[in-house]
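Predict structure. Chain length: 95.
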Amino acid sequence: MCRKAVNHEPSSPEELILRDHLALDRTRLANERTLLSYLRTSLMLLVAGATAVKFVAESESVVVTGWVFIGLGTIVGVAGVWRFLAMRRAINRRD
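Prediction complete.
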């Protein structure tokens, strides 16, 4: 028995059914949760680095480690925002 392959990809937004709209909403919410995770990690690294530099600066290695944490926190924050925006564009193309 030979069956024809069925393409389940809608050709236009008007063809999306409720299940598809709900899946897009879940994907948008997951993208936002991912952004918040990136920002939480970034904030933790920034605070740990600032604390090490400002309050625990007993040795040069602690100060250097603090500045490394501050740099990593900034990189993680920027990467998270960049990833969020890229994913949002990709998700909105599907809408």
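Summary: The chain has a mean pLDDT of 88.
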